[in-house]
Design goal:
Radius of gyration: 19 Å
Distance between the termini: 29 Å
Low-confidence stretches: none
CATH class of the largest domain: Alpha Beta
Bound molecules: coenzyme A
Structural class: alpha/beta
Number of strands: 10
Strand content: 15-25%
CATH topology of the largest domain: 2-enoyl-CoA Hydratase, Chain A, domain 1
Helix content: 40-55%
Number of helices: 11
CATH architecture of the largest domain: Alpha-Beta Complex
């Protein structure tokens, strides 16, 4: 499928979506969000894809936020619909059963920061600049920033970032746990792929259930989360990959996981 605002590449088992409006710093417009939804559904239906990278075209931006031309036209009703749709797309990404890494290669502002927060892991290039800048526009976050940012950096830091709309550089983002690692710009994608190759050497089912359990930890009480994990542990013990992984250890050889 050809997209106007995205590039989808599949290299072996790793897919990469590049938000592709570099002249507008990859600002998220309505068409891009719709294409993103279709693209995610396409990837979900491709069992050969074991991991996903999200990045931005060009050297300057990951995503400089939602398209402010479109934002300006919103009213009370369309604004809510806009947020509901975008939020549902990002939640779908968060709930994917394969690891999703944001490779933040420059500005990640507003909706761009929210997009990165919905990914499972965030790597950044040294020139990355990240912020929830909505309040500068007389807005608030609409794609999950007020909910995911405090879960990732803590309530106090999220308050500071959102209320001041301040933009943090890559190293500050790493220091506060907003990004996992910082790489030189020309190494960001290579290091992301290297990381994901290690990740996808694990069984697909283990990865999917681990993601599901960690996601659940953000929503459930500790007791409910522990109960959820024990249920999933039982599930994984019924898989061929589990038998293979444990047998491979006992036989002192490398496991050959088949995702079954
Ligand atoms: N929506 C629509 N267009 C955007 C955009 C956005 N969020 N962010 C950048 N652009 C466009 C600019 O309008 C400009 O288009 P033009 O060349 O047709 O005028 C182009 O992208 C390049 O941006 P520019 O502002 O010239 O680059 P810069 O290097 O001077 O500044 C930023 C970079 C990121 C600091 C600045 O573009 C900016 O503040 N963008 C808005 C960020 C924001 O508030 N996002 C949150 C939205 S919720």
């Amino acid at each position: 499928m050809n997209y106007q605002t995205l590039l989808l590449e599949k290299n072996d088992a790793i897919a990469k979506i590049t938000l592709n409006r570099p002249d507008k710093l990859n600002a998220l417009n309505n068409l891009m969000m719709k294409e993103l939804e279709t693209c995610i559904k396409d990837i979900e239906q491709s069992p050969s894809i074991r991991a996903l990278i999200i990045t931005g075209a060009g050297e300057k931006a990951f995503i400089a936020g939602a398209d402010i031309n479109e934002l300006h036209e919103l009213n009370q009703i369309s604004g809510r619909q806009f947020a509901e749709f975008g939020s549902s797309v990002f939640s779908r990404i968060e709930q994917m059963q394969i690891p999703v890494v944001a490779a933040i290669n420059g500005y990640a502002l507003g909706g761009g920061c929210e997009f990165a927060l919905a990914c499972h892991i965030r790597f950044a290039s040294e020139n990355a600049k990240i912020g929830q800048t909505e309040l500068n526009l007389g807005l608030i976050t609409g794609y999950g920033g007020s909910q995911r940012l405090p879960r990732i950096v803590g309530k106090s830091r999220a308050m500071e970032m959102i209320l001041s709309a301040k933009i943090v550089d890559a190293f500050e983002a790493e220091r506060i746990g907003l990004v996992n690692k910082v790489f030189k710009q020309d190494e960001l994608l290579e290091k992301t792929v290297e990381f994901l190759k290690t990740v996808i050497s694990k069984g697909a089912k283990s990865l999917a259930l681990a993601i599901e359990c960690i996601n659940a930890s953000q929503e459930l009480s500790l007791a409910a989360g522990l109960a959820f994990e024990t249920k999933k542990f039982g599930e994984i013990c019924g898989t061929k990959d589990f038998k293979e992984g444990t047998l491979a250890f006992l036989e002192k050889r490398k496991a050959n996981f088949k995702g079954e």
